[in-house]
């Protein structure tokens, strides 16, 4: 790639921030392959009914596109609160909900409001590779502690890291990406209690992008919101909802925390079209949740199948599975790709991550893996 910052062909050198010089944009390869199991999307496209309702809602919104959208998207926030009540039994008011173009933007808002120069964001690796980017882009110092061998988080180690680094933001993915690990609420409470001791204050973000896929008995951190004003629980419509292309993410938190995010958002950041699409899809959440049940069963069956073939598999509360260990994971990844199956080369050395697809896609993955890994 041409390094634009030092290119001498132009008259002017670009004043790119030194910490960005030479960096490539983040993102998994977008390859044209028959079986796409690399970015944890829902494999099922919206049904004809959902498509028709989205189209009608967008047509309605289009009639008003000469006007700016509702800056505070009140109707969408009410719908999201109603959805969270149905999904996890936690009652929230619309003033406790925030939304943006994907939970990636929600988390950027969090870092813009609570991070910044001279401040630190803390997480525990291996975890979502976008977190350090939010920190970098907001000039927040980034510190990554470690998860245990089994990808759980030791509450004592977490407390010690918070005491040592005094972060203003802690990011916890649960279920974690790329490992699938959900945190027990006792661990989240331990982190919240330690965060409450940070002199300047500390916001704890529990990223539940895969929350809907959690196994029976695994609680949501939404249950802790009433007791902890410095907790934010982030969710997305990209995964369980099968709406990754619409770019809608959201969070639940105390009203004062949401108010801080309203300060840093760009005016009218959530377009009228996006709001209409999200609301039309939310009206079908019961149908979509039934599909999530099928994906969870498919996930559990895949874990059993992989283990029966002698592979190591991390327990998963998400719609993907981390499996290994391979001496040459690159070769396995490439072998699968050569057979038309794209998975993700991510996580600690030796591991690969596969998203849960349709039964046909899962079968194609299994057939390819048997060949490639000689199972
Ligand atoms: C996929 C994912 C998200 C969701 O990103 P969107 O911007 O909502 O599409 C957030 N967090 C984690 C850990 C993810 O894997």
UniProtKB/TrEMBL annotation:
<dbReference type="InterPro" id="IPR004839">
    <property type="entry name" value="Aminotransferase_I/II_large"/>
</dbReference>
<dbReference type="InterPro" id="IPR015422">
    <property type="entry name" value="PyrdxlP-dep_Trfase_small"/>
</dbReference>
<feature type="modified residue" description="N6-(pyridoxal phosphate)lysine">
    <location>
        <position position="239"/>
    </location>
</feature>
<keyword id="KW-0032">Aminotransferase</keyword>
<dbReference type="InterPro" id="IPR015421">
    <property type="entry name" value="PyrdxlP-dep_Trfase_major"/>
</dbReference>
<dbReference type="InterPro" id="IPR001917">
    <property type="entry name" value="Aminotrans_II_pyridoxalP_BS"/>
</dbReference>
<dbReference type="GO" id="GO:0000105">
    <property type="term" value="P:L-histidine biosynthetic process"/>
</dbReference>
<keyword id="KW-0028">Amino-acid biosynthesis</keyword>
<comment type="similarity">
    <text>Belongs to the class-II pyridoxal-phosphate-dependent aminotransferase family. Histidinol-phosphate aminotransferase subfamily.</text>
</comment>
<dbReference type="GO" id="GO:0030170">
    <property type="term" value="F:pyridoxal phosphate binding"/>
</dbReference>
<keyword id="KW-0663">Pyridoxal phosphate</keyword>
<keyword id="KW-0368">Histidine biosynthesis</keyword>
<dbReference type="InterPro" id="IPR015424">
    <property type="entry name" value="PyrdxlP-dep_Trfase"/>
</dbReference>
<feature type="domain" description="Aminotransferase class I/classII large">
    <location>
        <begin position="35"/>
        <end position="364"/>
    </location>
</feature>
<comment type="subunit">
    <text>Homodimer.</text>
</comment>
<comment type="pathway">
    <text>Amino-acid biosynthesis; L-histidine biosynthesis; L-histidine from 5-phospho-alpha-D-ribose 1-diphosphate: step 7/9.</text>
</comment>
<dbReference type="GO" id="GO:0004400">
    <property type="term" value="F:histidinol-phosphate transaminase activity"/>
</dbReference>
<protein>
    <recommendedName>
        <fullName>Histidinol-phosphate aminotransferase</fullName>
        <ecNumber>2.6.1.9</ecNumber>
    </recommendedName>
</protein>
<dbReference type="InterPro" id="IPR005861">
    <property type="entry name" value="HisP_aminotrans"/>
</dbReference>
<keyword id="KW-0808">Transferase</keyword>
<dbReference type="Pfam" id="PF00155">
    <property type="entry name" value="Aminotran_1_2"/>
</dbReference>
């Amino acid at each position: 790639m041409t390094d634009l910052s030092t290119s001498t062909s132009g008259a002017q050198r670009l004043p790119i921030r030194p910490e960005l010089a030479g960096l490539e944009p983040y993102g998994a390869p977008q390859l044209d392959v028959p079986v796409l199991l690399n970015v944890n999307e829902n494999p099922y496209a919206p049904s004809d009914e959902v498509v028709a309702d989205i189209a009608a809602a967008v047509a309605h919104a289009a009639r008003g596109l000469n006007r700016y959208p509702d800056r505070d998207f009140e109707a969408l926030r009410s719908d999201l609160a109603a959805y969270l009540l149905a999904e996890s039994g936690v009652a929230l008011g619309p003033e406790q909900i925030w939304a943006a173009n994907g939970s990636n933007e929600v988390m950027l808002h969090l870092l813009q409001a609570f991070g910044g120069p001279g401040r630190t964001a803390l997480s525990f690796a291996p975890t979502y590779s976008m977190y350090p980017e939010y920190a970098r882009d907001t000039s927040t110092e980034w510190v990554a502690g470690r998860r245990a061998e089994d990808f759980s988080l030791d509450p004592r180690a977490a407390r010690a890291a918070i005491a040592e680094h005094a972060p203003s933001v802690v990011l916890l993915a649960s279920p974690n990406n790329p490992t699938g690990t959900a945190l027990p609420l006792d661990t989240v409470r331990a982190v919240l209690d330690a965060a409450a001791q940070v002199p300047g204050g500390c916001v704890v973000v529990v990223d539940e992008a895969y929350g809907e896929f959690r196994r029976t008995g695994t609680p949501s951190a939404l249950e802790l919101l009433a007791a902890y004003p410095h907790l934010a629980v982030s969710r997305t419509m990209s995964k369980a909802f099968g709406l990754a292309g619409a770019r809608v993410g959201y969070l639940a938190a105390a009203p004062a925390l949401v108010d801080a995010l309203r300060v840093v958002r760009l005016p009218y950041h959530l377009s009228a079209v996006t709001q209409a699409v999200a609301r039309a899809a939310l009206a079908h959440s019961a149908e979509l949740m039934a599909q999530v049940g099928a994906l969870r069963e498919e996930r559990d069956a895949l874990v059993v199948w992989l283990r029966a073939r002698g592979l190591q598999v991390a327990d998963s509360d998400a719609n993907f599975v981390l499996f290994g260990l391979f001496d040459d994971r690159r070769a396995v990844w490439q072998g699968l790709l050569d057979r038309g199956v794209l998975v993700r080369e991510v996580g600690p050395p030796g591991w690969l991550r596969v998203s849960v697809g349709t039964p046909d896609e899962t079968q194609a993955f299994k057939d390819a893996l048997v060949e490639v890994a000689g199972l």
